Amino acid sequence: xxxxxxxxxxxxxxxxxxxxxxxxGQRQHGGRNRFxxxxxxxxxxxxxxxxxxxxxxxxxxxxxxTTCRTGPAIATQFRPGSRNSAPRSCRRLGPRSGRPPRSxxxxxxxxxxxxxxxxxxxxxxxxxxxxxxxxxxIIGGGLAGxxxxxxxxxxxxxxxxxxxxxxxxxRILTAGAGGxxxxxxxxxxxxxxxxxxHPGMDRLVAELGLAAxxxxxxxALLFQRAGRPAPERYPxxxxxxxxxxxxxxxxxxxxxxxxxxxxxxxxxxxxxxxITHGQAGIVAHxxxxxxxxxxSHVICALPPRLLAAIAxxxxxxxxxxxxxxxxxxxxxxxxxxxxLYDRPFWRDAGLSGAAHSQTGPLVxxxxxxxxxxxxxxxxxxxxxxxxxxxxxxxxxxxxxxxQLGQLFGPQALTPLATLYHxxxxxxxxxxxLDQAAGEHPAGGQRDWSGAIWRDRLTxxxxxxxxxxxxxxxxxxxxxxxxxxxLIRQHANQRSAKQ
Length: 498
Ligand SMILES: Cc1cc2nc3c(=O)[nH]c(=O)nc-3n(C[C@H](O)[C@H](O)[C@H](O)COP(=O)(O)OP(=O)(O)OC[C@H]3O[C@@H](n4cnc5c(N)ncnc54)[C@H](O)[C@@H]3O)c2cc1C
Known about the structure:
Blueprint: E1 2-3, H1 21-28, E2 32-33, E3 36-37, H2 59-63, H3 107-114, H4 126-131, E4 134-139, H5 143-154, E5 159-162, E6 174-175, E7 186-187, H6 199-207, E8 212-214, E9 220-224, E10 232-235, E11 239-240, E12 244-246, H7 251-259, E13 266-267, E14 272-278, E15 281-286, E16 293-300, H8 304-307, E17 311-313, H9 318-325, E18 335-341, E19 351-357, E20 362-367, E21 375-381, H10 385-391, H11 393-408, E22 417-422, H12 450-453, E23 457-459, H13 472-497
Parallel strand pairs: 4-5, 4-16, 5-13, 9-19, 14-17, 16-23
Antiparallel strand pairs: 1-3, 2-11, 6-7, 8-12, 9-10, 14-15, 15-16, 18-21, 18-22, 19-20, 20-21
The structure holds flavin-adenine dinucleotide.
Flavin-adenine dinucleotide (FAD) binds near residues 21, 163 and 472.
InterPro entries: Amino_oxidase (IPR002937), FAD/NAD-bd_sf (IPR036188), Flavin_MAO (IPR050703)
Protein name: Amine oxidase
Pfam family, one: NAD_binding_8
């Protein structure tokens, strides 16, 4: 018997590879998993589970993934809902330079309307649009950017947050059955946090008044060996700490933060392509808009690899660029697939919904049923990113549904809907460097900005966190750290003037 808690060595690289993204975090941060598992036979390079994907090899078959994450449901805990303001109407950017008007509203407005929160769209502000520099420009409207914005706002420091997508959240994407962002839906990006190990998340969830519940895990775990579609059944063992989810989905944390920020300080659909640094401060140039944004300081709340793609003048030193490019964006190489059902039928057969497979295309599956009872199974796709693109979404989804049928029975073959998001194919998350499964960002203290930009530019993406890089907690840690630095600077400037 081999313990599943010890990840298996890669046959190719000789390094320890743990394909279970969530488990990996727990392993690194000291989580305990008391689970033992029969050692699988060495798998041959395996083919996909169904037609259309037959030439694809799953990550696990190529590098030796391991099954190591299990856990029964712990007590479900619901806390009172968040404070929400009444919805306001959506404004549009006025036509400039003869261009058609552009809405700053994204799908997040629909999300927030459902959540009874106001829109987060706003017009171009005079302060940011030309009359004077904004004190802090935040690039990136994911959890890190919004955390930084909230801290600055609470300290009374003006900011402008720009986000390239037409929605907030970045890697956090909670979608409904139709695939659009929803106030109560399925997490196509992150699903879990681990109380105690990620105190930043615990604190923010409590502060925002969000409800959390334990990942469902009652029942048996299935294991599908290479070349043997019929699954083996094992008891689930307790995982400590339990993986926790947010009621409504992780999008709830984004909606709650956005609701606390002034709508006119957030601009969606605004991609920064170039940043120049002169005597007077920073000038950020947009990818498709002539008017630049002047700022005294810029917080780059995005993965360092994406920052490396923004043209900086003057150029950072080679060592700084190497650090940015060499920092993997956590989970960027991965894809998630969901199958939605009218009820969690697998529970009738005593199954937890958790499964691990050496056959693929899904390598790690879980019950994704929402706190409100919308039933679903989800899985991480184990097919490498370039092969997923080659096969196409439909083939990957069809093969995944076929595999769910092998594991959970014929009822799994007819989902009400399927959802699929390939993060490696999303250029606002992944770069060419993220197409191969990557390592976890290293964390620790780093000189992220380099000497040339140190006084004007601060990195704040989750990957730059010291303690919990790559995680939701890392985004909070990095966003708070960046805001704290600027709050200190502003306080020092104020006292120097007095
Ligand atoms: C599939 C998946 C599963 C995951 N599971 C977990 C989990 O279970 N638990 C956990 O803790 N973490 C998990 N993570 C990681 C977690 O999602 C991230 O740590 C966190 O969301 C990062 O937030 P961020 O704000 O630092 O970066 P991002 O969310 O990447 O936000 C960066 C923002 O910058 C924007 N942007 C990029 N370039 C520009 C530009 N030029 N101009 C303007 N805006 C720009 C992007 O559109 C994006 O909105 C998962 C991630 C993925 C993809």
